[in-house]
């Protein structure tokens, strides 16, 4: 089966506190998003890539990232939406070709582990939907509105979800369509599949797969990329 990757990169990056959006920040000489796309380009698992960017940034992104790096797997650059979920949906609609599996990888997760990517795709083929994730190291507490702890969640069963996530094409399309119809929102795509009642397989990810969100994340990711470890 053919495998497509949808890369949402239409975030505003307010938590980073920089003028340049985090997906375009320089990281070891190329934009953050460039690392993601280079990794997908190099992966034998991925056949095509659709990118979603902030409306109006399509041209800039094509020139400054896709063409500058000589990438050939990017088949479309389309505008994203208000929420991450909307951006991924726009990316899904822009897929052309008979893709059996769709991988979603955040545009701000530049340390892609090729073994994890392969494992997530295989798990999606076997089970319909899969997400990479790592066991929580910290103890997670739910806060009440008063600023006090409401309760402590049992750490043994907590996993922190990452991308890549992978899905059979019909399953991810149906999940997004139903979520839109029923106005259900989730911060990841596996969450939408869960909403439809379908199982999602957990695949061990990598602690190096940091989602660049706040300034200190860049320091860590820069080192991991220099190590050449994905
Ligand atoms: O918001 P968060 O940091 O979780 O974003 C994860 C990914 O989703 C980022 O790559 C960001 O650019 C993307 N995103 C998007 N459209 C939005 C919000 C976020 O494509 N409206």
Automatic annotation (TrEMBL):
<comment type="pathway">
    <text>Isoprenoid biosynthesis; isopentenyl diphosphate biosynthesis via DXP pathway; isopentenyl diphosphate from 1-deoxy-D-xylulose 5-phosphate: step 2/6.</text>
</comment>
<feature type="site" description="Positions MEP for the nucleophilic attack">
    <location>
        <position position="211"/>
    </location>
</feature>
<dbReference type="Pfam" id="PF01128">
    <property type="entry name" value="IspD"/>
</dbReference>
<dbReference type="GO" id="GO:0050518">
    <property type="term" value="F:2-C-methyl-D-erythritol 4-phosphate cytidylyltransferase activity"/>
</dbReference>
<feature type="site" description="Transition state stabilizer">
    <location>
        <position position="22"/>
    </location>
</feature>
<dbReference type="InterPro" id="IPR001228">
    <property type="entry name" value="IspD"/>
</dbReference>
<comment type="function">
    <text>Catalyzes the formation of 4-diphosphocytidyl-2-C-methyl-D-erythritol from CTP and 2-C-methyl-D-erythritol 4-phosphate (MEP).</text>
</comment>
<dbReference type="InterPro" id="IPR034683">
    <property type="entry name" value="IspD/TarI"/>
</dbReference>
<comment type="similarity">
    <text>Belongs to the IspD/TarI cytidylyltransferase family. IspD subfamily.</text>
</comment>
<feature type="site" description="Positions MEP for the nucleophilic attack">
    <location>
        <position position="155"/>
    </location>
</feature>
<dbReference type="InterPro" id="IPR029044">
    <property type="entry name" value="Nucleotide-diphossugar_trans"/>
</dbReference>
<dbReference type="InterPro" id="IPR050088">
    <property type="entry name" value="IspD/TarI_cytidylyltransf_bact"/>
</dbReference>
<protein>
    <recommendedName>
        <fullName>2-C-methyl-D-erythritol 4-phosphate cytidylyltransferase</fullName>
        <ecNumber>2.7.7.60</ecNumber>
    </recommendedName>
</protein>
<keyword id="KW-0414">Isoprene biosynthesis</keyword>
<keyword id="KW-0548">Nucleotidyltransferase</keyword>
<dbReference type="GO" id="GO:0019288">
    <property type="term" value="P:isopentenyl diphosphate biosynthetic process, methylerythritol 4-phosphate pathway"/>
</dbReference>
<keyword id="KW-0808">Transferase</keyword>
<feature type="site" description="Transition state stabilizer">
    <location>
        <position position="15"/>
    </location>
</feature>
């Amino acid at each position: 089966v053919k495998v497509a990757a949808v890369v949402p990169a239409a975030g505003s990056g307010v938590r980073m506190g920089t003028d340049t959006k985090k997906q375009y920040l320089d990281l070891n000489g190329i934009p953050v998003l460039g690392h993601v796309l280079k990794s997908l380009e190099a992966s034998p698992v991925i056949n095509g890539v659709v990118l979603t960017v902030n409306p109006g940034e399509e041209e800039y992104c094509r020139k400054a990232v896709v063409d500058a790096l000589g990438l050939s797997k990017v088949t479309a650059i389309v505008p994203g939406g208000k929420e991450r979920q909307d951006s991924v949906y726009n990316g899904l609609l822009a897929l052309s070709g008979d893709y059996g599996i769709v991988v979603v990888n955040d545009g701000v997760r530049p340390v892609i582990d090729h073994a994890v990517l392969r494992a997530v795709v295989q798990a999606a083929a076997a089970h319909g939907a899969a997400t990479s994730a790592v066991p929580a190291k910290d103890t997670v507490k739910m806060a009440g509105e008063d600023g006090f702890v409401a309760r402590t969640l049992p750490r043994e069963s907590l996993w922190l979800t990452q991308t890549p996530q992978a899905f059979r094409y019909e399953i991810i399309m149906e999940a997004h369509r139903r979520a839109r119809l029923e106005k259900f929102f989730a911060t990841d795509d596996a969450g939408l599949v869960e909403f439809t009642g379908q199982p999602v397989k957990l695949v061990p990810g990598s602690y190096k797969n940091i989602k660049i969100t706040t300034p200190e994340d860049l320091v860590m990711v820069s080192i991991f990329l220099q190590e050449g470890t994905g």
